[in-house]
Design brief:
Elements lengths: L1 H36 L34 H5 L17 H4 L8 H12 L14 H7 L1 H10 L5 H21 L5 H12 L11 H14 L15 H5 L13 H21 L9 H13 L5 H20 L7 H4 L2 H20 L3 H4 L2 H15 L18 H23 L10 H19 L7 H7 L2 H17 L11 H26 L10 H9 L10 H11 L1 H4 L1
Helix pairs in contact: 1-7, 4-6, 5-6, 6-7, 6-8, 8-9, 8-11, 9-11, 11-12, 11-13, 11-19, 12-13, 13-15, 13-17, 15-17, 15-18, 17-18, 17-19, 18-19, 19-23, 21-22, 23-24
Length: 561
């Protein structure tokens, strides 16, 4: 009896601790909500529908953009009124959604998501025939998150909705014990456009971990077991227990699993924020099933992203640890052969794409990002020598040049995209930019007796590229906020950070010219810093000034070059 009592006391204590943690999180979110409401009327931006849809980079030229959305005539009939919305206590409140300054209806927000955002994150698809009422009734969590991410034109509203979404997810998962595809899809949408939100304590990493737990709890990481555990396998296969035989995974479930697969891997490789889901035969099984039926045009983009991750996986597994001197451990010849084999795999994969897809700008950006990842091994720590400069090897210089060309081409493609797309692109695209920024900085500062920095800075200069990025972010900010200097736009913040990084680089470059060349052996390389700390939150924890200052300190030339 006493042991039973002791167990009960321990269980109660554990419950009390969990309740205290959740109460603390809710308090923080309430404070964030209060801060959001203090932004004032200057942050209430009027949403203006574009006069005409821009060319979707994911839509081949031979495909009519209107085939995937509303026609101009139908769009013009949308009434800009906010309907009366009814929510249960576990969802976003009426007050949060019916702010008097907000002029965009829930129907318009859903159409905005379907027509302008969903194709860039093809892992959560809403049929064009689905209405707001159907979505709200059948997928309330997904609906709440769509309302949140499509409120980017009004910062205070989006912050309030974000707080409500997090509270709702915590309540449903931790207190109500819910596990559903709706929760998973909602969290994926939250994470995909997480970078839009302003305010303290972003919850991206926590949300990815919650999504991972849901995937495993729902068993979506593996093929469906075709029979109930209480039935005999042979009987189930003979059809004697048809009622207990489980249906195969739906395409919707497969997309959601692959969405987390890609998100976790891209966050891990570009930001070091999470442990990625590992590749498995089931990943390819999902791709084959989706590719075979191809319900939506965006499914081609989905399969492309997933299979591209498998190529990147080979490079990651070949050089898994940062801080390890692979150049002295393996030697230049084996590294060169490995890198060239990765490049051949990437080229063969690109050759399998349909011409219209291979020429698509966003597809090319993804391909070039993988090329940068494959070749940035050349920027890893050089072997220590007694000479002032390490002796270069032809193999390393070839890889460095490949990395330079890929990085230059990446920014050429990225800067060619209209800034009006930035609000629609998901976070897993922007992390590619963050990584490329760091690699470009490394290339402009890397020291090797055969590496001509004057040539590098002539064809792919760091400072002008940062200036162009800042201009693009400012343009994106002005798309929704004519008073960009108010600082209420997330992209205005991103632009300011690019300028700050540009100023830092210019100062350090002047220091280099005064101090002369320094030995690589004396300093930690930028490659190590980028992989470990620099890209962590580079583009999405950018409101954290403490972290940004730490990044600047770690990437300062006199400390890490």
């Amino acid at each position: 009896m006493s042991s039973w009592s002791a167990c009960s006391e321990k269980a109660q204590a554990a419950k009390n601790q969990l309740e205290e943690k959740v109460e603390g999180l809710v308090s923080l979110l309430t404070a964030a909500q209060t801060s959001a409401s203090a932004l004032g009327p200057d942050s209430d931006f009027r949403y203006v529908l574009p006069p005409k849809p821009i060319q979707d980079p994911l839509t081949p030229r031979s495909i009519d953009v209107d085939a995937r959305g509303l026609s101009d005539a139908a769009a013009s009939q949308i009434q800009p009124t906010l309907p009366q919305l009814q929510y249960s206590s576990s969802h976003i409140t009426n007050d949060s959604l019916s702010s008097p300054e907000w002029t965009l209806s829930a129907d318009e927000q859903l159409q905005l998501f379907q027509n302008s955002m969903a194709s860039y994150f093809p892992f959560v698809v809403i049929p064009m025939s689905m209405t707001v009422e159907e979505l709200r009734t059948t997928r309330p969590v997904l609906f709440d998150n769509i309302m949140m991410v499509t409120s980017y034109t009004k910062a205070s509203r989006q912050l309030r909705l974000r707080s409500e979404v997090i509270k709702s997810v915590i309540e449903q998962i931790y207190f109500q014990g819910k596990k559903s595809l709706d929760l998973l899809q909602g969290i994926l949408v939250f994470t995909a456009w997480y970078h839009q939100c302003l305010g303290p304590s972003p919850q991206m990493t926590n949300m990815v971990q919650l999504a991972t737990a849901l995937v495993f709890d729902l068993g979506l990481h593996r093929a469906q077991i075709p029979f109930d555990g209480n039935e005999n396998y042979n009987e189930a296969m003979k059809g004697l227990s048809d009622k207990r035989i489980r249906l195969p995974r739906t395409l919707e479930e497969r997309r959601a699993f692959l969405g987390l697969f890609c998100l976790s891997r891209e966050l891990s490789s570009n930001c070091g924020k999470t442990e990625p889901l590992q590749s498995s035969p089931y990943v390819e099984e999902c791709c084959i099933a989706i590719e075979k039926q191809q319900e939506y045009l965006s499914d081609r983009y989905l399969v492309f992203q997933v299979r591209l991750q498998n190529i990147a996986d080979a490079a990651v597994h070949s050089f898994p640890f940062h801080g390890v001197d692979y150049w002295s451990k393996l030697g230049p010849e084996p590294i060169y052969m490995l890198v060239k084999s990765f490049e051949r795999d990437l080229e063969q994969f690109e050759n399998t794409l349909e011409p219209e897809l291979a020429q698509n700008t966003l597809f090319q950006i993804h391909l070039l990002s993988i090329s940068v990842h494959i070749t940035d091994i050349a920027l890893r720590k050089s072997p220590s020598t007694e000479s002032t400069q390490p002796k270069s090897s032809p193999q390393r210089l070839i890889i460095l040049m490949d990395c330079l060309q890929s990085t230059k081409a990446f920014f050429t493609k990225w800067l060619s995209l209209p800034s009006s797309l930035y609000h629609h692109l998901p976070m897993n695209v922007f992390v590619l930019v963050a990584h490329a920024v760091i690699v470009l900085g490394m290339l402009n500062l890397f020291q090797d007796d055969g590496w001509d920095l004057n040539y590098v800075r002539e064809i792919a200069a760091f400072s002008p590229t940062m200036d162009k990025l800042a201009q693009k972010y400012e343009e994106a900010s002005l798309e929704i906020d004519n008073s960009a200097a108010s600082g209420h736009s997330s992209f205005w913040k991103h632009g300011m950070k690019m300028k700050k990084l540009q100023d830092w680089y210019d100062v350090k470059l002047m220091g280099m010219s005064r101090q002369g060349e320094r030995r690589n052996e004396d300093l930690e390389t930028l490659a190590e810093a980028a992989a470990r700390d620099v890209t962590t939150g580079f583009d999405f924890d950018m409101l954290d000034e403490g972290f940004w200052n730490e990044m600047i300190a770690r990437t300062a030339y006199d400390e890490v070059v």
